[in-house]
Design a protein that fits this description.
Largest sheet: none
Number of strands: 0
Distance between the termini: 15 Å
Oligomer: single chain
Helix content: 55-70%
Strand content: under 5%
Structural class: mainly alpha
Shape: globular
Order of helices and strands: HHHH
Length: 62
Amino acid sequence: MLRLLCAILKQEQANKQEGISTNILAKMGKDEPISLESLAKICTTLNCGLDDIVEITTDTQK
C-alpha cells in the first residue's frame, strides 16, 4: 500500500507541484515519521483526508 501511495504521490506531484519533497517520499518508504504539515500536503495533493492515508497502530502490531 505504501509503495502505491508513493507512486501516486510522485505522479500527482509532477502534475500539481504541491511541494512534496523527495525526502518526504523517502521517509515514507523507510517507515520513518513525517510532519503533520507533510501529511496535510499529501492530503491536498490526493484530495483526501488524513483518515484515508494514516493508520494508527500500537507497537505490538508492527
